[in-house]
Amino acid sequence: MNITLTYPFTAIVGQERMKLALLLAVVNPRIGGVLIRGEKGTAKSTAVRGLTALLPEIEVVRGCHYGCDPAEPEPCADCQERRALGPLLPRLRRRVPLINLPVGATPDRVLGRLDPERTRLEGVPCFQPGLLAQANRGILYIDEVNLLDPYLSAVLLDAAAAGVNYVERDGFSIAHPAQFILVGTMNPEEGELRPQLADRFAMMVAVEQITDPTEREEVVRRRIAFDADPERFIATWAEAEAETRATLSRARALLPEVVMPAAMLRLIVRLCDAFHVDGLRPDIAMHRVALAHAAYHGRPRVTPEDVRLAAELVLPHRQRPCRPSPPRLDEARVEAVVQEVMAEMVAPTP
After folding, report:
1. From the candidates 17, 216, 270, 281, which is the catalytic residue?
2. For 161, 175, 183, 189, which has the most beta carbons within 10 A of its beta carbon?
């Protein structure tokens, strides 16, 4: 992919909630991924590609299949062996990888497999890494994730949650780092994603076609300008891109210092209970999203605003029973829970 010809992230008209969800996933990659639902022509793929241009280059071990960080105390097995021969590993800087996972990809292509030819020649099992290895420390993008093989979907989501890819083949097993931001896009007209899999995406955003004539005209105007002279168009948006890049950098630096007050944690739990979501995954996801949102806005403490936003991104696709597409939260109900918890904070202690 040629970064210089990538449509700028900040030039996308509207779709603010989608852009925010992607930015929060960058602020804290441990949030757990983003599911974007919407019809064709809603800038889903454009946003994912543009996101990579906002990310700083990373330092990797030269020749490492997994792009290990030279400063990582526990890198992959290959880098550990190389480090044993000398403490300084050869290194280089590169763009954060964006790996596209085709819907028709085989498990071997995604997870990796034994290389039969090398194994025969060398007399020892030789592993050929797959797409998960290439995506380590980057973004794994799955278009039409709802059409992906269910088994492959489950394995991918397990790897994304653990940050490790476990492969077992014919008595051979290997584990390698697979820490990536998972982004899945889907058109609900082509089929829904099973609830068990949708639940594994921390955040969900429903995007819709732009119907406002003024905004629609601006979308067309910008697209024409980009197609006519991509370099000039990108230069026009360079300042906005730099500002967003700087905001991301500050947010990532601030994130470890952001405080979650006890009342805000209580609010998260109450909201999850009020909307009858299953398990503790939603609570944990809301906690991480609220912290990232506070950091993105430069706040040292989580506020009700951060928790509201987290609820809107984390809870809709987890409600039981599932609501008609696209899933949405009852905003009045959210506000009622917020006000209830806030009232408890100011109530005098008996």
Report:
1. 281
2. 183
